[in-house]
Design a protein that fits this description.
This protein is an alpha+beta fold. The chain contains 4 helices and 22 strands. Strands 1, 14, 15, 16, 19, 20 and 21 form a 7-stranded mixed beta sheet that branches. Strands 2-9-12-11-10-13 form a 6-stranded antiparallel barrel. A 4-stranded antiparallel beta sheet has the order 6-5-3-8, with no helix packed on it. Helix 3 runs antiparallel to helix 4.
Length: 425
């Protein structure tokens, strides 16, 4: 028993120094970590302070005017003074409300001539690319057989006519019955029908021009054997042209016959041709939700051809004195657009918020339909505080060193078309 207690005491005396050493090592590591963290935070704070000090001094040295223009009003606003804002002026200009699309030219009338029956070409009565007249013989197929059938039908009709006349004379003398006369009359009608059939078959061997136009390139030559339905030649009436193009469905209620359409062609660079809307399709394309428009384009010179690529611009309305403001003046809020005007008051220049009715949009500009007139000053930056209430005193701020005035009007424009894109044809 004594030996056991001495052994336990020896072990305890050995364990206690080891435990104390472990605790000391852990405390040493914690102190090192703390010292490192404090050093890193101190270095970062010193770097941030140096950066702020340098930039503050540099900004003040580089732009003292801008610093005074921005910082001073900001301090005034924070103390309840005027609100610093950037402003611009509303101007009046001519605006064309339009829509643009691409399309194709089509001839006023066009047809590909095809024979109704097979046969051998006996005559070609036109020249490639030349004008033809309505009713002009273009292609004659061999009609020898059809002529013979017509002569046979005419001979049978002559015999039937003679028999009818003879039977009428005999019935008057009571040599034949009335039914014999009726049979002769029916036989004559059958013979006459055979003559008409033979004439129709003969006419089908002749291919005539259906209207005045220009012949294309012939696909047949003298002596060729053509089958029924084979392409022979196309005829195009290019006295006037159709301009076919498509617009999106939102323009459907604004389209009407007679509207002007400006047409430009890549084949005729630098030229703008005038057309008129002739018809609007009654059905929208279910795939693209677009509407087919057809306009008439004169072609007195004959330089236009079907299939040419065109750019069509449809003009819906022209406003000579439309009021436009910078696009930055619009403030969207709750699904509506607002504008903050700067008006004169006894307290100075104060703000007035109003809901804007927007017309057409232009690059960097927007048309305002009511509430703003030409020359009014509108806020283009700094509207956040002014949207809370009207009547706040404002101070226009000149931010850029090159700006001549805080209220900078937009450059005037003689005529600005509103760019709206339609669907390809």
């Amino acid at each position: 028993m004594a030996w056991t207690r001495r052994h336990e005491g020896c072990c305890l005396s050995r364990i206690r120094p080891a435990t104390l050493q472990s605790v000391n090592n852990s405390e040493s590591r914690d102190l090192k970590t703390l010292h490192t963290a404090v050093a890193v935070v101190g270095i970062a704070a010193a770097a941030a302070l140096a950066w702020w000090y340098q930039n503050r001094d540099g900004a003040a040295a580089r732009s003292p005017v801008a610093s005074a223009a921005v910082v001073a009003p900001a301090r005034q606003a924070a103390a309840g003074g005027p609100v610093p804002v950037e402003v611009g002026k509303a101007v009046a200009m001519r605006i064309e409300d339009d829509a643009q699309a691409i399309g194709s030219l089509r001839a006023h009338q066009g047809v590909m001539l095809r024979p109704e029956v097979s046969g051998r070409v006996a005559k070609v009565g036109f020249a490639d690319g030349k004008r033809v007249r309505r009713g002009q013989l273009l292609v004659q197929l061999d009609d020898t057989l059809q002529r013979a059938q017509l002569q046979q039908a005419q001979a049978q009709a002559s015999i039937a006519r003679t028999n009818l006349e003879r039977n009428r004379e005999l019935v008057a003398q009571n040599f034949v019955s009335a039914s014999a006369v009726d049979q002769s009359a029916a036989a004559l009608e059958v013979a006459q029908a055979q003559v008409a059939l033979a004439q129709a078959q003969l006419e089908r061997m002749r291919i005539l021009a259906p209207f005045d136009g220009v012949a294309g390139i012939s696909n047949v030559h003298l002596g060729d054997y053509v089958k029924d339905g084979a392409d022979i030649v196309n005829i195009e009436d290019t006295s006037s042209m159709w301009v076919d193009f498509r617009l999106a469905e939102q323009f459907m209620t604004r389209l009407r016959p007679g509207q002007p359409v400006e047409v430009q062609l890549d084949a005729l660079p630098g030229r703008t041709l005038a057309a008129r809307v002739e018809a609007v399709d009654s059905l929208l394309d279910a795939d693209g939700r677009s509407l087919l428009i057809r306009a008439r384009l004169p072609n007195a010179g004959g330089e236009l051809r079907g299939g040419m690529f065109v750019r069509a611009r449809t003009v819906f309305a022209v406003r000579e004195s439309a009021v436009v403001v910078p696009e930055e003046a619009l403030v969207p809020q709750g699904g509506k657009q607002y504008i903050v005007k700067v008006i004169e008051a006894p307290a100075g220049k104060v703000s007035q918020r109003l809901e804007a009715r927007i017309g057409v949009r232009l690059p960097g500009r927007a048309e305002v339909l009511e509430g703003v007139k030409a020359g009014d000053v509108v806020v283009t930056a700094g509207q956040a505080r002014l949207m809370r209430e009207d009547g706040q005193v404002v101070q226009p701020v000149q931010v850029g060193p090159g700006a001549a005035s805080a209220a900078r009007p937009m450059p005037p424009a003689a005529s600005v078309p509103a760019r709206r894109t339609g669907s390809p044809a």
